[in-house]
Amino acid sequence: MDTIEIVEVGPRDGLQNEDVVLDPPTRVDFVGRLVAAGIRRLETVSFVHPGRVPQMAGAEEVMAGVVRRADDGSPVSHIGLVLNERGLERAIAAEVDEVNLVVITTEEFSRRNQGAGVADVVAATRRMMARAHDVGLRTTVTVSAAFGCPFAGEVSTDDVLAVVDPVLEGDPDELALADTIGVGVPADVRRLVDAVRSRTDIALRAHFHNTRNTGYANAIAAAESGVAALDASSGGFGGCPFAPAATGNIATEDLVYGLARSGFDTGLDVDALTVPAAWITARLGEEQPPALLGRAGTFPG
Q1: Number of structural domains the chain divides into
Q2: Residue 44, phi then psi, degrees to nearest 5
Q3: CA-closest candidate to residue 160, choices 106, 241, 83
Q4: Is residue 95 within 8 Å of 112, Cβ to Cβ?
Q5: Please, are residues 180 and 139 in contact by the beta-carbon 8 Å criterion?
Q6: Interior CA angle at 259 toward 258 and 260, to 5°?
């Protein structure tokens, strides 16, 4: 059975677009419940200005409270999303284990999301990678809007590689392809993974939204294409606050069920994952999560 890693993004991407703003102690509690369910790698916080994303305020307080080792003694790796050099310094001071840096494929989205054009963001990302490596942090660069842009429309393979090539010169530890607005289909996944693989053999990760009901099919296609890690959000909550209609993160429990039935080992137990999903659903004031497995149960029952 092939293995694939699940990166839990619920504490960051899952909460950043919700109307209910959870305080840092509640978010710390959420992280602890995810770790108890078996999660060992999480995107825990975002070092963005709270005026832009109030749901992510108090990143330092969250990092000060989160569990660093699970009850079985295994280490927990906490990722901080970083969009600029000020954010990186905050992440270093907060003692994250990894940083996730973001480069967007199109000019308009890049300026709306990060306040700078693509070339400037790439240059800053390379500086931040060097700084992160100097202090021993693992680095991921996420190529956002790799499958389509809410403002420019179609994004070609060449558009993606135009970002990937200079990013690779900064020697990231991992490269992530993100379908930020949920427009991709499995054929796009195979095309992009093959194209990036022609440039590098570093670890690849993928981030999908189920906005148009293709997220799970895309995740399975990515796993079959050799991607080493997949992002997912407990309960299926989340989205991008800077992209219109960018809803629908794929749910961790639903994804793990689909992967297991497809012959992939995540090291996670589906039933255990429904527990933090139900808990965060209640904290967000929802009767049901977007995820479906908690309603239908596993099969066979």
Answers
A1: 1
A2: -90, -40
A3: 106
A4: no
A5: no
A6: 95
Lowest mean pLDDT among 183-187, 265-269, 291-295: 291-295
Q: What is the Cα gyration radius of the chain?
A: 18
Whole-number Å distance between alpha carbons of 149 and 153: 5
pTM more than 0.90: yes
Residue 2 pairs with which residues in a beta bridge? 264
In a domain, 72, yes or no: yes
Domain with 284, as residue range(s), is: 2-296
| 28 domain residue, yes or no | yes
CB burial class (10 A; 0-12, 13-18, 19+) of residue 1? exposed
Residues 6+ apart with CB under 8 A from 131: 85, 88, 92
Confidence tier at 115 by pLDDT (50, 70, 90) = confident
Domain with residue 33: its CATH number is 3.20.20.70
Model pLDDT, residue 114: 87
- Measured at the CA of 227, the angle between CA 292 and CA 216, to 5 degrees, comes to 20
Catalytic residues: 240
Residues 6+ away with beta carbon under 8 Å from 65: 24, 25, 28
Residue 245, pLDDT > 90, answer no
Looking at the domain assignment, is residue 65 inside a domain?
A: yes
In a domain, 160, yes or no: yes
